[in-house]
Structures are given as C-alpha cells and as structure tokens.
Design the sequence.
C-alpha cells in the first residue's frame, strides 16, 4: 500500500463502522472524496459500496453515463435505482400503525379489507383513518418539497388499493421522478406540473434523503464516479462511449460536489463517496486546483505522509505497494 493511502477493505470497514452504523445511520450526512488510481482498486471499491451499510439503499452514478454536472440528471439517475413502490408501501404500513391498525404479520401485502377484518373494524372507517394518518405523515412534513409531497402521497394512495390512484398514474409519478418525458396532461392528472429540472432537483434530493428515513430505511449510500472528468480529449467518433466533459462542465461538476458538502446540515442519512483519479487531485488546469471553492473544502489537512487519515475529506485509496507521493 502506498504511503498516506489506505486499502479498500480497511476503508470500507471504517466507513461502515464510523459513519453508516452511527452518524449517518442516525440522520447525519457526510461527503468524502476518494482518490483512486488503479482500475482493479476502483472495481473493488465500487463493488464494496454496492453492498455496504445494513438498512441503506445503495446507488451508483458514473460520469461516463450520467451528466454529473447537472443536478437534475444526478437526481433522476439516483431515482431510477430506487424501489419507489416499496418505499410507499413502507410508509403506508407506518400510517396504519399510527392509526392503531397495524398490518398483521401473516399478511405480507397491504390489503385494507383483510386488515379491517383482523381488527374487526369497518373497512371504510379504516380507510378514512389511514388516509388521515398518511396526510399527516406526508402533507404536513414541510421539510419535504411541495412537489415531492404530492408525488409521494399519490404513490401511497395507490398502495392503499382503493382506486384513488391507478397503477397507470403510479407509473406516471415514478416516470416523473426518473426524468422520463411525459405528456403534460398525464402530469396534471396526478397534481404535478414542472418536470424535474435544475431548479427543483436540489429540493427533491433533500426530500429524498428524508423520505428514505420516513420509510424506515437507514439512509442512502451514493457512489459518485468522476473518473471520466479526467479525459481531456474525446476519442474519435467510432470509439466514443458515453459522455465527455469540457473544462466548463468539469467545473460545474465540482460545483455540484461543493453544494453537496455545504448542504450536509440539511441532508439526512446520506453518505456520498466521490471517486476521482489522482490527475484530478493535482492538475492545475482541470483538477481540483482549478476550482478553489471545492479545493478549499477538501484540501489535505496537516497529515502524516506515511499514515492515512480515514476521517479526512480527501482520502487516498490504494492496495498496492508504491513509492510515497
């Protein structure tokens, strides 16, 4: 292992123990930049984050396949990897418990008629009670953005199975979250108007981290791979694969990371691992030094060049013996 670097297994175990199990799992947020220079190490790190954190949802966003300099594209890439119907089901179960009519253990699916029979109550009265509980959980939570509240209420109503929201309308809501192009009439039918864009994506992302915890999840682990930003010149047309970034777009991507770091007090249960190659750590023209606002937030603290500090904002990951940097 290179001096001042930490190996993959040790770092993943550290993140799980020191961040996910405790701080992030209890509602905190942390953004870490990981300098990784070896392809094998990158693959191992990606696989590790894909399985890390008990009770966490885990997603990966790669700059090669997602325009990471656009916050709306990052949000929709995350949204496409989540089980929105499953999260809504969890919130409906919570609403039933709040209404004092929990789903019996022997009923894996939510069936209001079966729940009403189990508790020996009128099905219509049970529905009214759970509907009120859902509105308290979703609509009265002002820390969720208005659009997000509307979308989540529709998903929860569909889970009730009473016909208030159809399966088609559920798919419209999920399609909206995932950035699909949808007819304006379909969106209006479920109470939505503007598509996910650069203006509402940040509040939606903040809301998402809170929603996961409302649904009983520990939080979200996001692996953000910025390796593609280091490619200065696009290859010939026939050899291109995915997206490539101008210097301006690269700086916009750094700005997005900077905004995430500055929003840690607002985010709930979020751990972001931002992976980038050594070239982007040191390059004056295209790397972190070219964007002072981010570099100042992650610049190396006073450190021992022979020992790694896993708590640092910028951590070097390496499993191979190398000369000290």
Sequence:
């Amino acid at each position: 292992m290179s001096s001042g670097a930490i190996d993959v297994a040790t770092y993943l175990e550290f993140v799980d123990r020191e961040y996910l199990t405790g701080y992030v799992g209890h509602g905190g947020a942390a953004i870490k930049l990981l300098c990784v220079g070896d392809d094998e190490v990158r693959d191992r790190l990606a696989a590790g984050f894909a399985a890390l954190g008990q009770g966490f949802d885990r997603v990966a966003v790669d700059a090669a396949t997602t325009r990471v300099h656009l916050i709306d594209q990052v949000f929709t890439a995350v949204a496409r990897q989540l089980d929105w119907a499953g999260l809504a089901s969890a919130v409906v179960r919570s609403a039933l418990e709040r209404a004092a009519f929990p789903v019996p253990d022997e009923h894996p699916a939510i069936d209001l008629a079966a729940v009403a029979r189990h508790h020996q109550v009128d099905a219509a009265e049970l529905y009214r009670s759970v509907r009120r509980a859902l509105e308290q959980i979703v609509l009265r939570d002002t820390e969720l953005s208005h659009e997000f509240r509307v979308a989540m209420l529709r998903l929860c109503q569909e889970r009730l199975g009473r016909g208030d929201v159809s399966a088609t309308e559920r798919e419209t809501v999920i399609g909206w979250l995932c950035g699909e192009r949808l007819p304006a009439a379909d969106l209006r039918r479920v109470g939505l108007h503007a598509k996910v864009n650069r203006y509402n994506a940040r509040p939606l992302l903040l809301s998402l981290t809170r929603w996961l915890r409302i649904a009983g999840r520990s939080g979200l682990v996001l692996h953000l791979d910025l390796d593609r930003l280091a490619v200065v010149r696009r290859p010939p047309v026939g050899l291109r694969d995915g997206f490539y970034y101008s210097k301006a777009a690269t700086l916009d991507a750094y700005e997005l990371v900077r905004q995430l770091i500055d929003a840690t007090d607002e985010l709930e249960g979020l751990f972001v691992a931002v992976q980038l190659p050594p070239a982007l750590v040191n390059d004056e023209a295209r790397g972190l030094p070219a964007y002072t606002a981010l570099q100042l937030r992650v610049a190396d603290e006073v450190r021992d060049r022979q020992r790694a500090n896993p708590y640092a904002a910028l951590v070097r990951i390496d499993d191979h013996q190398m000369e000290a940097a």
Notes: Residues 321-325 have pLDDT under 50 and may be disordered. The longest helix spans residues 8-23. Residues 95 and 134 are 6 Å apart (CA to CA).
